[in-house]
Amino acid sequence: MRGCCYIALAMLARILCWLALAATAMAQTAGDSVLSQVRQYRNTHAAEILRSYAELLAIPDLATDTANIRRNAEAIQAQLQARGVATRLLEAPDSPPIVLGDLKGAAGAGARTLIIYAHYDGQPVDAAQWKSPPWQPVFRDEQGRDIPLEQAVRDPESRVYARAASDDKAPIGAILAALDALRAAGVAPRIHFKFFFEGEEEAGSPHLRAAIESYRDLLKADAWLICDGPVHQTRHMQVYFGARGVTGLEMTVYGPQRPLHSGHYGNWAPNPAAMLANLLSAMRDDDARIRIPHFYDEVRPLTSAEREALQRMPDIDGQLKTELQIARTEAPCSPPAPSPACPQEGATRIEQNIMQPALNIRGFEAGHTGAKAQNAVMTEAHASIDFRLVPDQSPQRVQQRVEDFIRGRGYTVVHDAPDAAVRMAHPRLIRLEWEPGYPAARSDMASPVARDVIAAIERATGSVYEMPTLGGSVPMYLFTDVLKTPAIGVPIVNHDNNQHAANENLRLRNFWEGIDIFAAILTQ
Amino acid sequence: MRGCCYIALAMLARILCWLALAATAMAQTAGDSVLSQVRQYRNTHAAEILRSYAELLAIPDLATDTANIRRNAEAIQAQLQARGVATRLLEAPDSPPIVLGDLKGAAGAGARTLIIYAHYDGQPVDAAQWKSPPWQPVFRDEQGRDIPLEQAVRDPESRVYARAASDDKAPIGAILAALDALRAAGVAPRIHFKFFFEGEEEAGSPHLRAAIESYRDLLKADAWLICDGPVHQTRHMQVYFGARGVTGLEMTVYGPQRPLHSGHYGNWAPNPAAMLANLLSAMRDDDARIRIPHFYDEVRPLTSAEREALQRMPDIDGQLKTELQIARTEAPCSPPAPSPACPQEGATRIEQNIMQPALNIRGFEAGHTGAKAQNAVMTEAHASIDFRLVPDQSPQRVQQRVEDFIRGRGYTVVHDAPDAAVRMAHPRLIRLEWEPGYPAARSDMASPVARDVIAAIERATGSVYEMPTLGGSVPMYLFTDVLKTPAIGVPIVNHDNNQHAANENLRLRNFWEGIDIFAAILTQ
Questions:
Q1: Residue B272, SS3?
Q2: What is the pTM for the complete model shown?
Q3: Is A253 found in the same domain as A399?
Q4: Could you tell me if B344 and A268 are in contact, meaning their C-beta atoms sit under 8 angstroms apart?
Q5: Last residue of one domain, picked from the residues B438, B453, B468
Q6: Is A370–B382 a contact, with Cβ atoms under 8 angstroms apart?
Q7: Do A362 and B248 touch (CB under 8 A)?
Q8: Is there a contact between A269 and B346 if contact means CB atoms under 8 Å apart?
Q9: How confident is the model at residue A1 (pLDDT cuts 50, 70, 90)?
Q10: Is A11 part of a structural domain of the chain?
């Protein structure tokens, strides 16, 4: 009996195993079949998809441009509705609306819910730096030559140039196309999807927290998919489980109240550019080590799983440095990097560096240089900084430490423009204006929902790198810390997209693959 | 006999003395009479004088604007010729012509010769910073309200706003009016005058030395009067016997070859703005002490006569600091200031500071600040410096010391834009572009020709401060060191003229008094 029973059980197990394998294979086949239909659809309708995306890119998308930013929201809402997604605009005073979409799956109530985040606003532009106007989308081939849309359709290495082409209208455009493709294939999502598209991410998402808290009930989900940021520099897909936080700082140091001849007054009238250079120099060194006392105190150490994930990342520093013409090489360091005590810029591997906080000078403006240089002591000098934060740093504590440090250097800190009396009372006067920013976040790399999302992407693209933290900032903390929901970053755009700079672009192959990825996720 | 002779001699001496006094008194009276006629003339013809001056200011006057800068020279030449001055244009390839004028005096050959220097080009403009276009002269009252010329004529506190209104077309305009006034009074110069007006002083006078060497014979004189720079900040007339030298430096530090997202690449990609801030910080401190080794080694100590002249200058620091809203106060220092070891900016008196060399940051440009700030690591950072030099520093030695210092900080110095191979070969790469500049100069404060010029100015305006060195730079060394001729600075314009900055202006009272001064000098 015992032997018979054992044999029967073994047979049963084998049968069950066969059945399971067959089911997986069938699902796989079904999935593959859907994906090949999606690819077929986007090949056949490529011109139409690009034309529709270019229309979205043509709407100016600065968060502060009240009328136009609303036009973006309304256009996206209309597109979602046309694809059967129930939508509403979440409004708050003096902020762009959030486009919220809801698409119930065939599995009905109780099924897993994923909510997809993207933002439809773009970075500010310096139009003079652009080869073509930022909101007039232009297609260019790999050599940078303008080409018509009809040619771009046939060349996946061609790109579309426009503000927000990559950051961050691309996932919105790809999702819309994926919904079309699935409808054409007659396939509906099984699980429940929500869409959450905000319009002031590049302005620091100042109203996002309030919106999330106000609409907490509408935003219940098993995970947020954060569709922002680029794929890996190897052009390999990656997912990320965290993002650095950010806080921005505008600094103004004051000189004489009118410009002075540098011959008659130079080395007598305080030079605000020299003062500001000296202050910045005291804040960080040439190797990106931040010299503000206690700045690194709260940095959360990496877990062993995170360290191992970093080890699995390919070493791209050599290729990147060649591409970017960066000559700095690895510097020996003890303790081993990543560590606040080690040189960072160019000295340790990029995926390690972004586990550390950063002080980036994003601008310094005082007087003029080159042909416009004037022999003058200027009245003010301005610098702009973005701090990138890691778990468990808080923007508030960082802001406090920076202000304390600056005061410790003999400065009087003000937050508004000083009047003559204030200027006359303080020999070293600095105005600090903070963008509030937000903290970093990190989610568990091993949760079931994370593994399922990764499996769907792998179905669409082969394999996926897993990054503990993205270098860039997205307000993931709102999902992980406020809503207590895991968040997984699913980027689709090329890394060399000039995002946040002039001539931002999207490589079309990334767009096409992005459509496949969203189709795979929507049909998981 | 002995007693009688003594008496006769004493009487003779007394008679001679009376005669001398009478001659002086007569000359004084004659001079005063001429000056009152000059004042009468400029009062009667004020509108005509201003209209003519405004026409000169309306000609754009950048040294690099080939066509317009020549229009200036030709207009000035025509004006001089119309007043009986023999003129010619001294030409050299690729440079604005020098307007040379010659006016023989009644005393004939062998009489003293004075040569008057001014420049007709202006500083570059940042038109966006100007309240009105830089080459459309506008009259404004003391409250800054636009007024018609007819009202400006009646208000000596009103000003004319235009590029070069003060620096340095003002003496040219005043000399032309003085010549008209003297002709109306029927008075001709006794001694020999030459006029030397150049057109590229604000570009560093790159061809002046060659011109002076080529035309050495035409330029023989007993002294040069350098008509550039402002009167004292108390609005009191001053003369100066020297000027600081100058050399300009454009610095470019290189980051990645394309702009990068500061989140994804911040603290990995070298930040050129941070590197440049650190470098500038190493070059000079907050108090204007230059930290480049041996920078002060050649500084010539002041003579006791120069120290005494400085002691006689009024203390204007308090008034200036209030006017300019500068709160820094005197810092105790041992050794006593002026000394390279002492704090300078705001800490010691201005007339002492300008006896020292200066490192003035006149511009720092990298990325953007404020509303245009972008979260990016920029590709390049630029700074622009002017060094002010004192006797016996040479621009060449200063340039060498600066380059050595920068190399000592680990930089590879290039002088042209680096290509990719150069960028890839050098982790710290800086481009340095020097404006050649020129050394400082100082003349003897006690020479007879200097005392006579001072006496003439005192006749026109009462009393005069005597400054060993002007803070600003004029190429006096060419006259003192190359031509071996004393040079005396005779400025007429207001100190608060925004020269080298936006909204440059000339206070009309300074213009009227300038006419008197030139009439007095021309009739000495």
A1: helix
A2: 0.77
A3: yes
A4: yes
A5: B438
A6: yes
A7: no
A8: yes
A9: very low
A10: no
Do A398 and A424 lie in one domain? The reply is: yes
Return the DSSP state at A3: H
In a shared domain, residues B420 and B487: no
**Cβ–Cβ of B361/A278 closer than 8 Å?**
no
Q: Which residue of A has its CA nearest to B360?
A: A266
- Judged by CB atoms closer than 8 Å, whether chains meet at A264 and B364 is answered as no
In this prediction, what percent of chain B has a pLDDT beyond 90? 80
Of A47-56, B168-177, B232-241, the range with the lowest mean pLDDT is: B232-241
* Chain B residues within an 8 Å CB radius of A168: none
Q: Are residues A118 and A192 in the same domain?
A: yes
Cα gap B439→B403, rounded to integer Å = 18
Six-digit token string for B296: 């002060």
Q: Are residues B232 and B253 in the same domain?
A: no
Over range B426-455, report the average pLDDT: 93
Q: CB–CB of A180/A239 below 8 Å?
A: no
Specify whether B67 is located in the same domain as B212. Answer: yes
Give yes or no for B65 touching A (CB within 8 A).
no
CB contact under 8 A, B367 and A363: yes
Which CATH number does the domain housing residue B412 bear?
3.30.70.360
* Centroid of chain to Cα A477: 13
CB-closest option in A265, A328, A388 to B263: A388
Q: At A394, list the tokens.
A: 């808080």
Domain count, chain B: 2
CA distances to A26, A403, B129, B284, B386 from A418, rounded to whole Å, are: 71, 17, 21, 27, 29
Minimal Cα distance from B474: which residue of A? A263
B327 touches A at CB < 8 Å: yes
Tokens of A95: 């902020």
State yes or no: pLDDT of B203 exceeds 60.
Answer: yes
Tokens of B76: 């000035």
Residue type, A492: I
Report CA B379 to chain centroid distance, whole Å. 36
- Which B-chain residues 105-164 have CB contacts (< 8 A) with chain A? 123-124, 126
Contacts of B259 in chain A (CB under 8 A): 498, 500-502
Nearest residue on chain A to B388, alpha-carbon basis: A263
Helix/strand/coil for A389? strand
* Torsions phi, psi for B87 (to 5 deg): -135, 160
pLDDT at A16: 56
B195 domain-assigned: yes
B341 lies in a domain? no
CB spacing of A424 vs B325 below 8 angstroms: yes
The interface pTM score, or ipTM, of the predicted complex is: 0.77
The verdict on A1 touching B (C-beta cutoff 8 Å) is no
Give the C-alpha separation, B288 to B297, whole Å.
16
CA B205 remoteness from chain centre: 12
B292 & B229 share domain: no
- CATH number assigned to the domain comprising residue B496: 3.40.630.10
Q: What is the pLDDT at residue B3?
A: 43
A98 inside domain: yes
CA A246 to chain centre: 11
What the block records as the tokens of A335 is: 């303790």
Hey, of A205, A268, A378, which one would you mutate to test binding to chain B, going by the most B CBs within 10 A of its CB?
Answer: A268
A277, B275: Cβ pair inside 8 Å?
Answer: no
Domain containing B361: what range? 245-299+357-438
Residues B271 and B239 in one domain: no
**Cβ atoms B161, B58 nearer than 8 A:** no
H/E run at residue B261: strand B260-261
Q: Where among B438, B470, B503 does a domain terminate?
A: B438
